[in-house]
Amino acid sequence: MTPAATTPAYRRLSVEERRTQLLGAALSLFAHRAPEDVSLDDVAEAAGVSRPLVYRYFPGGKQQLYEAALGSAADELKLCFAEPQTGPLTRRLSRALDRYLAFVDEHDAGFSALLQGGSVAETSRTTATVDGVRRAAAEQVLTHLGVAGTAGPRLRMMVRTWITAVEAASLIWLDEGKQPPAGELRDWLVDHFIALLTATAATDPQTAALTRAALATETADGPAGVLARRVIPVIAEAAHLL
């Protein structure tokens, strides 16, 4: 007599585990579709649960689920710029951008809908969540520069301008079919940071001091060294301006 096939024991999920499961399903859907194109039935099907169960955890419906999923994505994005405060600054920024662009790549449609706005799911809370990511990223960069909490207005403006440029470049990258390759885009964005930092240092003593300190830790084969070798011949042709 053949023994009856054993069925894996069903394990009831805890409240936190179920909520995490539903958010994961929602994030996966929002990553590839605009919020208005995702229904609660879609989320329930993706999670393998019933629609009433989704409502039990998110009684506010899709809007509440979207805001919770957005908050979860925001937490992940904030971690992208978290790096140990050791080694050359450009190496740290490169690693942070690798994580950021990997997130953009994985959540392409959702990332575009999130940052471009215009979604019917957009509210003052979702806007505040997105702005919180930008501010957190800027604070992380200022921490890497060693001036968190003490940066002057020009330096803060420079860093926030760069964060905005990173966002814009990411959206254009998606629109261009993810070309150039992510590694090239990362290097280009690091070059932009160095250029902005240097230009700001020309008129801001605080930025000038920390730029000198940052460049002192760079290596000839690192991003700053490579950029210097590429830029110096171009600048040399402008010697008549001196």
TrEMBL record:
Residues 39-58 bind DNA. Residues 16-76 form the HTH tetR-type domain. Keywords: DNA-binding, Transcription, Transcription regulation. InterPro entries: DesT_TetR_C, Homeodomain-like_sf, HTH-type_TetR-like_transc_reg, HTH_TetR. It comes from the Bacteria. Coiled coil: none annotated. Pfam families: TetR_C_46 (PF21943), TetR_N (PF00440). The keyword Plastid does not apply. Gene3D superfamilies: Tetracycline Repressor, domain 2. This is TetR/AcrR family transcriptional regulator. It comes from Streptomyces albidochromogenes.
